[in-house]
Design a protein that fits this description.
heterotrimer; A mainly alpha; B alpha+beta; C mainly alpha; A: mainly alpha; two-stranded antiparallel sheet; B: alpha+beta; 6-stranded antiparallel beta sheet; two-stranded parallel ribbon; 4 helices; 42% helix
Chain lengths: 231, 200, 324
């Protein structure tokens, strides 16, 4: 289990760059495409997912010696679903506007591959502190990524950023970017840019390390979860 | 044997059960705290949305559904979802009709406020999936404010050029389907309120 | 056996960048396409005035500029000499409403050249037709502007600012123009799509020069006409095929857009499937959606299907079992 100690800082950074869930692992694509019409939604969704991720990572890590191998998947799902429901209720009570904006995508955090993948790949094999850090790193990485996607789409598609008018009064924004095809296009271009900036090697030529994904939890995104088979 | 059964079946089931119970308890607690706040939020949001189309009213009665209206013999089209009575100082001053009409991208839900002297006090789209930049313009004041004011003698009709009389509604350029859908919704709301106030 | 395999390998190699053996060849082909588009461009300028000429000049210039700048930024060889950017610019202008604001046309050129063409590797690598993808992008982004049509200057009618296209009139129940006007191009529409006559002249030139074969245009137009007749609005077999063939962007689409080498199949069998798909989809879009026109989306969808069509229509190995 304790094969090689990784520092907490590198666990955190992994989530942001080397294993960025949205840009490298291509996990959680459904929310990254669907709610990123506004930068604000990216932050809100990112925070909600981070909360669930940290909570489920921490609990699963604490319970990792108790949870029997056989029923680990139902156990994980109970933990994840509970945290998601808590987020949903808290948001509806205290941030009703954001809750309305994110709508169905908050309950859908339950099936967000990132959460399940981290439970399966990390939390059940690592002690609580590391798992907590992994949750923070992954969650922050996800939040940064979808906030960037949201910013680009909001700027080009609505001419605003975080609701503040930027170019909207200068020229008509291109509606394309806040519609689904714009989401795919912006995401693809940002992945290309990310690979260029961080000099990511072709994933087909490097050995697959720790990434990869749960076998059961995310059939829906199974093709995307395959160790950063990005483009 | 029995030890194997315990380890293989009973123990995992028990642990899963305990985890479920624990988290159910946690959920029940959070729900207990947030439920009243959520209900209150929803009530305020609903009253606010009704006020948007009937600024004069202080409060609104409980909604009445189409089945009940039909039994009273009113003119209820299939687009009518609900009607609320607008109250000011306890006196009825008009109605807000919730209409659901078929637009280009799916259902358009809207509220139409009509006062007792048949003035349209407000038209607001509460939810829609019209194309941004085209049909979605129907939710903007530029289009929906055309309905405001006294209900015209003649039926509403959608036109493509600048309206010449008060029953003409200028279509959103490139979104005739949406324009017609919204206009039909308003017309049905007017017909319902008119039949309720004893007119034709 | 060996020979069969050789042919197959050869085909697979060709599939990534078909028909491009040298710069000179591409340049000659592109020059032919430009010549073939001259009648349609001239008709556009004749019917819609000098604004149409300005639009064409702006899109062509901006496409060439964007091609040059992207190649430079990506540190690749300069390819503006192959004239493909000129063709894209010209086709884009002919697919836009004549009064479209010029900055929108420039954004369209950017989308066509930088996003659709160069980011996928440049000429021969794009999986969508750049001009059509840019048109779809503009329609989605600036719906109102992209559906604001002007009447031809030669049209003697009241001074209405906006003007319905024949397909718009069909959808909204307006007055349908007569078929002669539609054939000549005296109708509302995109700059270069209105004159069937000019487009057919260009098509005949391309056929005569061997730039295109007859399969795609003929099958496309034929299928569209057939289905327009079958799926008429007053019941089966009541449609007016001639109206649908002459209306909207079908002619320019079938002759100039669907025949684009990179985004159409390689075998004759594939071409027939592809063109028939385009024709059926065009009529389905026109009849059963809220959009008046469906040519651009039909061709784009079939563009995406080309790799599959190619896979299932590639010649089998001689003597070998079906190998898909």
């Amino acid at each position: 289990m304790e094969k090689k100690k990784k520092s907490l800082g590198s666990i955190f950074l992994d989530g942001i760059i080397n294993q960025n869930p949205a840009f490298r692992l291509l996990l959680g694509n459904c929310p990254s495409l669907a709610i990123t019409t506004l930068a604000k939604n990216g932050v809100g969704m990112g925070l909600a997912a981070t909360f669930v991720l940290v909570g489920s990572n921490l609990f699963i890590s604490l319970l990792r010696k108790i949870i029997p191998e056989k029923v680990r998947i139902p156990c994980f799902i109970v933990v994840i679903a509970s945290f998601t429901t808590i987020v949903e209720m808290i948001m509806a009570a205290f941030l009703p506007e954001l809750d309305k904006e994110l709508g169905i995508y908050i309950p859908l955090i339950v099936v967000n591959c990132i959460i399940f993948a981290r439970a399966e790949m990390f939390a059940q094999k690592n002690p609580p502190v590391e798992s907590f850090m992994d949750g923070i790193g992954m969650g922050t990485g996800f939040m940064i990524a979808i906030t960037i996607i949201g910013s680009v789409r909001e700027l080009l598609g609505s001419g605003t950023w975080m609701g503040i008018p930027v170019t909207v009064n200068l020229f008509e924004p291109a509606t394309f970017f806040i519609l689904p095809p714009g989401g795919f296009l912006v995401m693809g271009l940002l992945i290309a840019l990310f690979n260029k900036v961080f000099k990511v090697k072709d994933p087909r030529t490097i050995e697959d390390k720790e990434v990869g994904c749960c076998a059961v939890g995310c059939q829906g995104c199974a093709n995307a979860a395959n160790g950063g088979e990005t483009v | 044997m029995s030890k194997g059964i315990f380890r293989e079946i009973i123990k995992p089931a028990l642990i899963l059960c305990i985890i479920c119970v624990f988290f159910s308890g946690a959920l029940a607690f959070v729900n207990g705290v947030t439920k009243p706040i959520i209900d209150e939020n929803e009530r305020i949001a609903h009253q606010e949305s009704l006020k948007n189309v009937f600024a004069d009213a202080r409060e609104f009665s409980e909604g009445v559904g189409p089945e009940e209206l039909k039994t009273k013999g009113y003119n209820v089209s299939e687009r009518i979802a609900k009607i609320y009575e607008a109250l000011k100082d306890g006196q009825p001053v008009g109605h807000v009709v919730e209409v659901s009409t078929r637009g280009y991208g799916g259902e358009i839900k809207m509220l139409v406020g009509i006062d007792n002297s048949m003035n349209i006090t407000g038209v607001v789209l509460t939810s829609h999936s019209e194309t941004p930049g085209l049909g979605a313009k129907g939710a903007e004041p530029g289009f929906r404010d055309q309905f405001l004011g006294p209900v015209p003698e003649k039926e509403f009709s959608v036109v493509k050029v600048a309206p010449r009389s008060d029953n003409e509604i200028q279509a959103i350029s490139g979104a005739t389907v949406t324009s017609r859908a919204i206009t039909n919704g308003v017309a049905d709301a007017v017909a319902l309120v008119r039949s309720m106030s004893g007119g034709n | 056996m060996d020979k069969g395999e050789y042919v197959l390998d050869n085909l697979i190699n060709v599939s990534s960048s078909p028909h491009i053996r040298s710069g000179v060849t591409t340049r000659r082909l592109m020059l032919d396409v430009i010549i073939a588009l001259i009648p349609a461009s001239a008709a556009g300028i004749y019917f819609f005035g000098l604004r149409a000429a300005l639009l064409i000049a702006v899109t062509v210039a901006s496409c060439v500029l964007f091609e040059y700048l992207t190649r430079k930024a990506l540190k690749r060889s300069n390819t503006i000499g192959d004239l493909s950017a000129v063709v894209t610019g010209l086709l884009l202008a002919l697919n836009l409403p004549p009064e479209l604001p010029l900055w929108m046309a420039i954004i369209g050129s950017f989308f066509a050249i930088v996003i659709v063409k160069q980011l996928f590797g440049g000429i021969g690598q794009n999986f969508l037709n750049p001009a059509l993808a840019a048109r779809a992008f503009l329609v989605i982004s600036y719906g109102t502007r992209m559906t604001t049509w002007t009447q031809p200057s030669t049209y003697a009618a009241a001074d209405a600012v906006s003007f319905a296209t024949p397909l718009g009139a069909l959808k909204e129940g307006g007055q349908l123009p007569d078929l002669i006007d539609m054939f000549i191009g005296n109708i509302g529409g995109s700059t270069g799509e209105t004159s069937a006559l000019a487009l057919i002249i260009g098509g005949i030139y391309l056929l005569a020069r061997g730039v295109i074969t007859w399969h795609i245009p003929v099958v496309y137009i034929g299928t569209a006409g057939l289905f327009a007749w079958i799926l008429g609005r007053d019941g089966l077999l009541t449609g007016n095929p001639l109206f649908h063939v002459l209306a909207g962007g079908l002619m320019i689409g079938a002759i100039f857009m669907a025949t684009d080498y990179t985004t159409s199949p390689m075998t004759v069998k594939g071409m027939v499937i592809y063109a028939a798909g385009c024709g059926i989809l065009t009529i389905l879009f026109r009849m059963y959606t809220n959009m008046p026109e469906g040519v651009s989306y039909a061709i784009l969808l079939m563009n995406v299907a080309v790799p599959i069509i190619d896979r299932f229509t590639k010649p089998g190995r001689f003597g070998g079992a079906a190998n898909v």
